Amino acid sequence: MAHLLASNPSPSHKIVCSNLGYGAGRGSKSDSCRVGRKRRGDGLVLQCSTSTSTSTSSSQLPCVDQDVRLQIENGSSGKLKQQFEYLACEYGWRVRRLFENADEIRKASEVQAEAFHVPVSIFNDVFLQFFQAEVLSGLLYKLKNSPPNRYACLVAEPAKDDPDSAKQLVGVIDVTVLRDRNVLQHLPPEAEEYLYISGIAVSKILRRRKIATALLKACDMLSILWGFEFLALRAYEEDLGARKLYTNAGYQVVSRDPPWTSNWIGKKCRVLMIKRTSMPK
What we know:
alpha+beta; Aminopeptidase; 3-stranded mixed beta sheet; 7 helices; 29% helix; 22% strand; disordered N terminus
């Protein structure tokens, strides 16, 4: 497989998650997240720890073995460091950037293909295989040709101690820096770019388990790390379930597709939804 460009954040963008709360709800002591202070050129530090833990510096990793902490801070173990880098840890799920290896890229593309494939009456398996290949090709292209701070594929996995569970990808979402005028017209004049959310997919057998909510939370954290104040996405107007999900995550409808673009047979009307993040000072 062709070599992929690095898709992980730069070293200055440290994302730290410890004491993962499996099955804990939002606001519980086991999975509260906070954003550390930002210094120019140092990026941001996200720490997921108990809300009752004592204050620590941005370089500390609560509840992590001292030897492990030293390896992470010294950068002596890339895989070990990557294991603790998460953008969100909620509802028993944790979200990170996609690892740049063939096996995980294939798994991520399968999750998205399964979610977006429209079944057909005959030869469904054949069409699904073609669709999976198309999704895989698109993901490979984006990873190879996009700068690491302009595109990210985020994946969700179970927040369990079982090593085998971490190999299971249960959700995927794409985040891309864009500057579409149709979106920028709904933003303040000083906003030149924004993060566009797309390709959100959750394994069918695990839907309604807050995985999508955790993925959207990770997008919020990524927007803060990259310094973007606005996030945007599109949803089908008649998909009330998806719209409720996005509304609960803080997105608001700002516009709809023009009538002449959705009057074609089979063409569904979409709504544009935008969220403004709270940037830390």
